[in-house]
Amino acid sequence: MKSTERFNYSPDQLRELAADILAQAKTQGATACEAEVSEGFGQSVTVREGEVETIEYNRDKGIGVTVYVGKKRGHASTSDMTPQAVRDTVKAALSIASYTASDDYSGLADEDLLARDFPDLELYTPWDLSVDRAIELAQACESAALDVDERINNSEGASVNTNESHFIYANSLGFMAGYPVSRHGISCAVIAESDNGMQRDYWYTTARDWRDLDSETKVGKLAGERTVRRLDARKLDTMEVPVLFEAAIASGLISHFVSAVSGGSLYRKSTFLPDSLGKEVFSPLINLHERPHLKKGLSSCMFDNDGVATRDRDIVRNGVVQGYFLSTYSARKLGMRSTGNAGGNHNLVLDSTGEDFAALLKKMDRGLLVTELLGHGVNAVTGDYSRGAAGFWVENGIIQYPVEEITIAGNLKDMFRNIVAIGTDVLVRGSKQCGSILVERMTVAGN
């Protein structure tokens, strides 16, 4: 593990704070307690039209305390780490617990599920980035975008940011662990104009290790190219055609599935996929895996927010749902056990069916390539899906022209079953990794 000397508090000091919280909670009458102590800092520089627009620097710290008195739960937090503030926060959490109703499902994680092994997942790589160097990178990024085409005549700016943090999570079952993490990024957005109006687009790169970022000139060039290709967009007539979701937005389809089979939605019965475990929800082509221990993964972790050990598992196999996403609390509500997903999913990897982007276009033949989605027209209870979109019309497997002011509609249950291909053009930007996704048929509403 790389040095954490860049922080104001050492890992040992965070551990001492966490241990003190647990001891005070016990002394003040808690039957169980959990605490998280964290510290982080970051820097962000934005340049617009070659000039520095903003330079931001932040340094944060915080304590979160959750106490249990029997089955009553109370939570309090503070950004003050002084001894008096710690005592007051524990006291506040206990006061809140005294007013809450008893909940049979509340409490710490099952002890046998707590993490015991803590391998180094290489989640922390500091970036010694001076402000001057960050400005140079941002200027080079924006310049690369503006140089793409003379029709690019305005900019929303280019940004370079870096963030580092570390934390300790502890509970009264004897669990105490934590680690440092980093995340860095470069982004750019520009505007182009033709006789038919203006268009905007962007691009960005993000990584745990700054050396894994795309170059600033590549980010700028892609932002410029994506903006120019949208000029002179047309509208479409209403029709039913195949729809290809570009990799940059395709992960959103996986997000809708994750939400539908997450504990909160399941026990509240507010999902279009109730009781889906063991059922065929997707096309048989779909294989989705959770890989929480990927080195440098943007959503890698050794344990979840409850301290439960994370593990590799298949979520969907040949279209059939193999697992849900459950925290300790939601699992108990459902009569199940935690899957280590308190706080969310960890590196969901969707297997490709082997086609690159050009092959996906050829397979689609005639239809709509979607590169941007607008609005939030997704009903989590029924699965009805209707969103504004922009992208490109495709004929004979070749992109013909940009389109805008259209709506794509369907139902997620049908869309999942009608996935006919997943591309090899995987983008890694967050907790879901997938290529472009081709859906056999959707309604495209236009003129």
The main β sheet shows up as:
7 strands, antiparallel
**Strand segment count:** 19
Distance between the termini: 58 Å
Question: Structural class of the secondary elements?
Answer: alpha+beta
Order of helices and strands: HEEEHHEEEEHEHHEEEHEHEEEHEEEE
Low-confidence stretches: none
Q: Report the C-alpha radius of gyration, rounded.
A: 24 Å
Shape: globular
Q: Can you offer a commentary on this structure?
A:
- The protein is of the alpha+beta class.
- The protein contains 9 helices and 19 strands.
- The strands form 3 sheets. Strands 1, 2, 3, 4, 5, 6 and 7 form a 7-stranded antiparallel sheet that branches. Strands 11-10-9-12-18-17 form a 6-stranded mixed sheet, with helices on one face. A 5-stranded mixed beta barrel has the order 8-13-14-15-19.
- A hairpin with a 2-residue loop joins strand 2 and strand 3.
- It is globular, with a radius of gyration of 24 Å.
Briefly, what is this?
This protein is an alpha+beta fold and 447 residues long. It is 23% helix and 36% strand.
Topology, element by element:
Elements: H1 11-27, E1 32-48, E2 51-69, E3 72-78, H2 83-99, H3 131-146, E4 152-171, E5 176-177, E6 180-194, E7 197-207, H4 216-228, E8 239-245, H5 247-260, H6 263-268, E9 288-290, E10 313-317, E11 320-321, H7 328-333, E12 348-350, H8 357-364, E13 367-374, E14 384-395, E15 398-411, H9 412-417, E16 419-422, E17 427-428, E18 432-434, E19 437-445
Parallel strand pairs: 8-13, 12-18
Antiparallel strand pairs: 1-2, 1-4, 2-3, 4-5, 4-6, 6-7, 8-19, 9-10, 9-12, 10-11, 13-14, 14-15, 15-19, 16-19, 17-18
